[in-house]
Amino acid sequence: MAFQTHHDSNNDSQDIFEGATPFPDPVIARKRRLSHNDGPPPLKSRSSVEIENREANTASESSSNILQQIETVKSMDSLVVEPGGPSEHLVALEKIKSPSLQLSQALNSITHSNCAELDLLRFQLNSAQEKELDPCTWGARQRRRGLEIANSMSEPMTSCDCFASEAEAFTPTAQAYSQALASGQSFGAPVFLNGQGQYNWGIQRPIDHILASFPETCTIDIQDPSLAGRQSYRKVAMSTLKKRLQGNKATNSPCNVLDLASQIGPILIPPVIQCWECSLLNAIEQNMLQPGNAKRAIVNTGLKKSRPWKQVTHWLLLAEGGAISEPHHDHDGYSSWLTVVEGKIFFAWLCRPTEEDFRSYKEGDNGNGAYRSSPRWRYRILNQGQTVFFESGLVHAVLRLSGDGCQTMMVGGHYLRRSQIREWFRVFLDQIRNPEGSNEDLDLISKSLINAGAKLVGQLGDDGGFGDEAKRMEIMQLKTLIDREWSLHFKKTGERKK
Known about the structure:
By secondary structure, the protein is of the alpha+beta class. The protein contains 13 helices and 14 strands.
C-alpha cells in the first residue's frame, strides 16, 4: 500500500505517561518543553532501532520494576517527555534517583530483554525439531517453518508518526491513530497500541474465566500438532479442553484454539476502531441480513432463501505454550486486530515483501518456501493489554515460547475501512486467483460480502465515505473483474473448482 509523507506539523502534543502504560516503543525523549512546531520525530535507522526497541520492551522483570517507578512520577509536572529524545525509562530514573536500582544495570537489562527472548524462542524451536519423532506431523511442520521465520526476523524501524513513509511499524497515540484513520490514511505496516482492551476479567485468569462460560458438552475444533495428513484439527468436548489447559502446564504437543466464540460481545472491540471509517463490515452485515430494510436484522427465521452470515467482528484465540500460527493473510481480505489478554506472543510479519517473496508465498506448499527465510521478516513481542492492528493482505505469523505458564489468550476481530474498500477488493481478487496463503478459502459468504459492499457503493455515493466518483468507478470495475474471476474458479455451490 502507498504511504504518504507527513503533512501536519501542528499535532497536539501529549505526555506519553498519560493513560495506560506506554507501549514499549523505540522512542527517545528529550527533557525539554514540547513545541507545537517541532514536526514529526525522525525515523530511526536500522542500527539504532535494534538497541532502542530492546531498551523499551517491558517483558523482563527489570522493565516491570522500572515502569512501576515511572508511575510515581506521572504527577510531576516538570517532567516532560516527547518522542525523539532519551528513553522514558532513562528520564524517569534520573528523576527518581532510586538507590535500589542502578541506572546502568536497569537499562542494560531492558536493552537485552527482546534479544534474550528471541534467542530463547530459537533455541526452543531448534531443540524441538531435533527431538521430532515423526517429521510428517503438523507440529513438526509448524516448528520447522517457525524456526525459519525466527532465524530470519528482526525488529522493525518504528515511528509514532502515522504518516512516516518508511516506517516498518507504527506506535502512535490512540488519538493520532484515530485521526489518521479518519483522514483515510492507509497503513502498509502494523500499528501497535496500548489500552485498547478494557474488559474486567475478574479474579480468575482470563482463560479460566472464558472456559467457565461454556457448558462442558459444547464442542470446539482445535489444531492438534500430533495429527498427520491433510487435516490439522480435530473436534473435542469443552470438558476435554478445560482439563487440558488446567494449570497452565508445559506440553510437547501444544494445541491452538482458533475459532472460539466470544460470550462477552462487542465490548471487546478496541475503542479506536469503533468509528464511521471502520464500520463498513457492520453496514455490510445489515445489508446482507436485512436487504432493503433499515430495521434490526433477524436471523434464523426459517426463511426459504438462505442468508448466510458468520460473526467475525470479535472472537477468541487460545493456545498452549509453543503453539505456532503459520504465515498467512486473513481470509476474505479482512483487516484485523489482536489484543493479548493473557501471556505474550511474538507477532511477526513480512515487511514490504519483494516480488520474489510474494511469488514464493503464493506457491504455498507447492513451492520451496523461500519467503520464510526472507530478511524482510519483522517482529514485536506483545504482552498483556497490547493490541496490533493490520490491514488487508498483510502476511503474518504468531509464535510463542514453550514451558510452564506460557499459555496465551487473545481477543481478535476483523473490520473493513470505508476509504480502503478499493484495496479490499484488490486483495479479495488476489485470493480468488491465489488461494494458497490465506488461513481460510473463500466461500459463498465471501462473495456475498463483495456483492453487498459494491451495492452500498452504488447506493450511497458521496455519502458512503468510499472516495470520489473516479475512485468509486474503479471499485465497480474491480467488482466486474471479481465476478468474472469468481465464475472461473468457483462453482455455484461456493466450492472451488479443481
